[in-house]
Records
---
Amino acid sequence: MAHLIELKDVYKIYPMGGEAVHALDGVSLTIDRGEFVAIVGQSGSGKSTAMNIIGCLDVPTSGTYRLGGVDVSTMDDDRQAEIRNKMLGFVFQQYNLIPKLTVLENVELPLLYAGISGQERRERAVQALDRVGLADKQKHLPNQLSGGQQQRVSIARALAGKPSVILADEPTGALDSRTGREVLEFLQKLNEEGDTVVLITHDNAIARKARRIVRLQDGRIIYDGDAAAPQAVVRAEEEQV
Ligand SMILES: Nc1ncnc2c1ncn2[C@@H]1O[C@H](COP(=O)(O)OP(=O)(O)OP(=O)(O)O)[C@@H](O)[C@H]1O
Ligand SMILES: [Mg+2]
């Protein structure tokens, strides 16, 4: 069977004055269903660029990207948006919850945009909130929840769309370390239950919670393997150079 995610010799080049910035400089990477992968690297290494391509928010300058066996690297915006809604669930550092809507309504909203009927919307949203342990908070407004709970609502919102991949970009960035760990354990649990999770982080301690680490440096992969291996984590002082 085809890989769920397959990047082949992907370049993302930004012209900057007379120079060209190689944000991604020949990245080849495959991710299969059921994996939990952390993409790490220092600031400017290309993590967000990789995330935008994997998330169908941007296209490579050259090279190919296949998602679920389909070449999305050359699609127009409308087709990309369609694939994005169908296959991807996003979790961001900022939860992006709508303050005036209840927790339940927030989780239902993307399903409304996806044209899913009222009853199914409700069922899926309730089920997703149940999965994140917030079934009893449906009627709350976001500001009546803790930061960790709000992040779990945003995870429920991603789950309700039944995505093939959960893409989490610095999901613990706005949380204290204990709450951040809880959210991470939560992503681990979803992965154990079968979900595919791709996590973007600059934090080695967070990355080690994944099963596999892909480390970027200057737009290239410098490590791809077991998250528990000693080589997976480069010490901070070595990273500075
Ligand atoms: N729109 C753009 N135009 C020009 N250069 C860009 C653009 N977007 C990103 N870059 C450059 O590409 C490189 C990779 O950027 P990217 O945002 O992917 O890094 P990152 O690993 O996400 O960093 P951070 O941890 O700070 O978020 C950087 O050198 C950046 O300056
Ligand atoms: Mg970034």
Note: The chain has a mean pLDDT of 91.
---
Amino acid sequence: MLTFDTIVIGGGLAGYCAAIKSAQSGRKTALISQGEGSLHFASGSIDVLANDPKTQAPVRYPFEAIAQLAKAHPYRKVGVESTRDALDWFRQLVHAQGIHFHQLDAFQNHWRITPFGTLKATWMSQVFSVLLDDTTPHGFERVIVAGIDGFRDFQADVAAENIAQLEQFKGIPVKPVSIVLPDNQSDGMRAKRAIDYARALRDPLLYNALRDQLLRYATPRDLVILPCVFGNGDGQDYMARLQKETQLNFHEVPTMPPSLLGIRISDALHRAFTQAGGTLLKGDSVISANMEKHDSVWRVAGIHTQKMGDFPQKASEFVLASGSFFSRGLISTSDRIFEPVFGLDVTAPNHRDNWYSAKFLDAHLHQQWCSDQRQPPAFHSRSNCLQPSLYWGCAGWI
Ligand SMILES: Cc1cc2nc3c(=O)[nH]c(=O)nc-3n(C[C@H](O)[C@H](O)[C@H](O)COP(=O)(O)OP(=O)(O)OC[C@H]3O[C@@H](n4cnc5c(N)ncnc54)[C@H](O)[C@@H]3O)c2cc1C
């Protein structure tokens, strides 16, 4: 039997942050995670109330809008001050691990360019990105969208066609180009996913080929949109080197999963947790809990995992950060929605017709996005009020 001060269930953004805080405060902390969290699928930008939960309109001033949310909304429950403190803490934490963010200012969201060449509101983005808003001119002469020949997870033509229709790039030539890298079959290039390129581009032959072709296509007066293909712990170092050697302006876009921009954050959190002395139990699932009643209050006495079977893991505190449907923190069957470890109460619409949506990944109202909008509506002005909305589920990332 293992005994800890704190056991955190779930190794996504929320679980890692909770576990790092706990370990840094001197508590003996374990993090149990059955798999990678949604960061491996994420853009690598950190959203703060990017969209109005009710209307889906993008929100420009998220901290002002939090006060208008329904009382049950996680941001409202946590409060503006704690949300800001948590974001500051997170930013410093990953900065110390070599992942740097920037933003328009601490109060407003900006637009980031998605892999499809559409815009999405977000609060802070990794440093090799342009921060667009509705009014400030960006000053680029052209937009060069650089695809990599044979890389199926980023289509430069599609992105360029959509970018050309954005208000922000009106009247500016948007040109897709294709970078051809030397064949490197022995280095995993057959699979041609972002993670394979990250590995292969460590080879100076391939790196130089990428750099030299970019220099042929673009000048320092252009914006170069590049799929994120540098990662594995030192992605931003490689981008800094590429920028220094070419003097080009880069905007890294996430690719289809695995998304190196998100993986960079996940790796940074992993390093921070182990440096803080935490114990990582990866690849194991928490399947049930032992509950005991003390003075008419039920407490978790221990948890059982798939690998440890009958031997409970004990702690004085347990943190559930198992995410949503995507990570099986919530499960839906034909007749119910439930939380599988503790059987916690879940509030969900009664009728199952309302359990799903035509859009992929928008079960949580606070994390819906506007990928289907080529030109999103202008940001909400300061005076706009958000309507209360229904929030259901258990994931939160602060
Ligand atoms: C695909 C996707 C992309 C997103 N992109 C962005 C983005 O670009 N920017 C942004 O700001 N937000 C994004 N979000 C929203 C945001 O990432 C999530 O709200 C946040 O990362 C969720 O973190 P989490 O730790 O709560 O959950 P998750 O990241 O889902 O992590 C939950 C973890 O718990 C583990 N787990 C579940 N059940 C158990 C169990 N029984 N035992 C042990 N482990 C368990 C899972 O394996 C997983 O590791 C995205 C969400 C999704 C789903």
Note: The pocket of flavin-adenine dinucleotide is lined by residues 9-15, 32-39, 41-43, 45-47, 285-286, 321-323, 326-329, 341, 361, 367, 395, 397 (CB under 6 Å).
---
Amino acid sequence: MHFALTDEQRMIVDTTRAFVETELYPHEALVERHGHLPMELIRELQAKAMAAGLYAANMPEDVGGAGLDTLSWLLYERELGRANYALHWTCVARPSNILLAGNEAQRQKYLYPCLRGETWDCLAMTEPGAGSDLRGMQASARQDGSDWILNGTKHFISHADIAGFTIAFMATGEEDTPRGKKKKITAFFVDKGTPGFNVRNGYRNVSHRGYSNAILEFDDCRIPAENILGEVHKGFEVANDWLGATRLQVAATCLGRANRAMGHALSYAAERRQFGQQIGKFQGISFKLADMAMELKAAELLTWEAGWKFDQGSVTDADMAMAKLKATEVLAMVADEAIQIHGGMGLMDELPLERIWRDARVERIWEGTSEIQRHIISRELLRPLGA
Ligand SMILES: Cc1cc2nc3c(=O)[nH]c(=O)nc-3n(C[C@H](O)[C@H](O)[C@H](O)COP(=O)(O)OP(=O)(O)OC[C@H]3O[C@@H](n4cnc5c(N)ncnc54)[C@H](O)[C@@H]3O)c2cc1C
């Protein structure tokens, strides 16, 4: 086993951290206050991220990305994750890996413009009636000649307001399985502006101000067959093949924010004096710091190990579920304790802690809730025993 970072990984961490602190932190207060990211600011920061070689760094070299191995990419994600989500997500974008599943014509139309920063993608799976149980989706597509007609509603779709297109997962049939009927799903590219495709503002959200979600409506929306991503009825297979590491990305960005909160907690414990001494000298505070550091380390080790195994081809769903579950729960704990250590000041928006605490909440819900992660882990434990 080898736990040290390579020189290249250290450079990735340093470059990304410097970019985040110099270019993103100064705009956080504005985004928090207005809940909106002006397009001029997006374009300005996007250009800087491109110049620094950080834009779309998740992509392989042969399509113009940085070609990072999974562990190095997760280290980069951890550093980006320190900043306001809307800022790092939109301005240092990472197009979804699922775009790599497209054929060359689809790559020309969708992937490369994302890499050039001309547009953004968004993924539409969740519906008002189908969240964790995606196979229960009602939105559907039916074939009409060589075209497909899409109908239904998706909600909670992240950054669909600025995306130029969506990849919509639609039910295209049903099959009988030993556990009853199961929907067959197909993935479609749908361009903004296509008749019958409407994007409405979503909900106001306690977490990640400035990072919008939208409601997507499909009303007899006609799509040519060339817009199918992967094969008909194989939408989940495409998603499973290409979105594998998304849960690790969530884990890594959570680690970034947890590290930032930890840094504030440590400094404050060393500086703040009450009853004639630094509060860090009270065991009530120092033991909190010890637990925070230990939990953070455990979450990092789970995440880095899963990232390493991903590239070895030996990662399991449970490995990634454990990393996501632990990192999101540790972020919640560290953010909460960091506020406690700061007393009243922890709740004031002079510090990023109240924001990190609010932002932590969504992480246990999106990309599979904590209950679903526990389900994945326990299933992997019990299945070999026939339970
Ligand atoms: C801000 C935000 C952005 C999002 N962005 C996107 C996006 O870009 N694209 C997209 O497609 N989706 C997106 N989502 C959707 C997200 O993935 C879902 O919210 C999530 O999968 C949970 O679905 P749900 O909210 O419908 O909750 P439900 O599935 O209704 O769950 C409700 C509760 O029941 C529990 N539960 C459900 N099933 C089980 C079970 N089998 N065992 C135990 N407990 C269970 C859940 O854990 C949860 O506690 C986003 C969500 C949010 C909040």
Note: Residues 244-385 form a domain with the Butyryl-CoA Dehydrogenase, subunit A; domain 3 fold (CATH 1.20.140.10).
